[in-house]
Amino acid sequence: MEFKENNSFSLDWDDRFTEDVIRLMDAIEATPPPPPPSSSSKKRKSAVHHQDNLKTGRQLPHSILSPPRSFPSSFARCQSNTRLRYPPLRFGGHILYSFTEDEVENAAMELLKIVEIKKKEMGQVSLGFDIEWKPSFQKGILPGKAAVMQICCDSQYCYVMHIFHSGIPQSLQVLLEDSEIIKVGVAIDGDAVKVFSDYKVSVNALEDLSDLANQKFDSDCRHWSLAALTEEFICKEVSV
């Protein structure tokens, strides 16, 4: 088996890249830019700003003094009182990175063996599941295919597969379609739809962590993020 264990990759989209970079780009894409002001509003704002400066001197803009509405509530809490910040959550295990079709096939075969062992020990097996893809920042241009698939079987090993280059080989397809292997994640239904749309492979037996959290708190309306779940249940902070 040829695995590459690495914690930093190239930023070239056609080469290897980290989930952290893509998550940051997804966050940027999810925050819509403010509409450009008209020329008349620019003049009015300029005149008002000039008068205010004459009266009060320079002031920090409101956007710096308070976080925008698009920021999560946890960030607002940290801004108001830095003592409420939780310690960062760090992955202390090994990242097994696979790039070629053979490497991804071998990684999936190893995962299937681990799953069989865990089935004998625990009866039911759950895998952490997530995918990443290159977003599009231009109107009319669709986002790229699902590029990176991450599967974690425990706290010791995380398999990062660059399916953009390898595709989904047979063993990985067997793993994804197995209805007895539960795949767990946040907004995992959307990930499954993306995989099927891009590779025509079904991801079965899905469990959304957001739904489980709502069951615990007797709520059905909150859409939890992974960061919010981490803070709520284990008092840790997820950082990119």
UniProtKB/TrEMBL annotation:
Domain of life, per lineage: Eukaryota
Pfam family, one: DNA_pol_A_exo1
Residue ranges constituting the 3'-5' exonuclease domain according to the UniProt record: 100-234
Assigned GO CC terms: nucleus
Gene Ontology terms describing biological process: nucleobase-containing compound metabolic process
UniProt keyword terms in alphabetical order: Exonuclease, Hydrolase, Magnesium, Metal-binding, Nuclease, Nucleus
Intracellular or extracellular location(s): Nucleus
Region spans: Disordered: 28-63
Chief place of localization: nucleus
Keyword hit for Lyase: no
Coiled coil segments of this chain: none
CDD domains: WRN_exo
GO molecular function, one term: nucleic acid binding
UniProt name for this protein: 3'-5' exonuclease
Taxonomic source organism: Gossypium barbadense (Sea Island cotton)
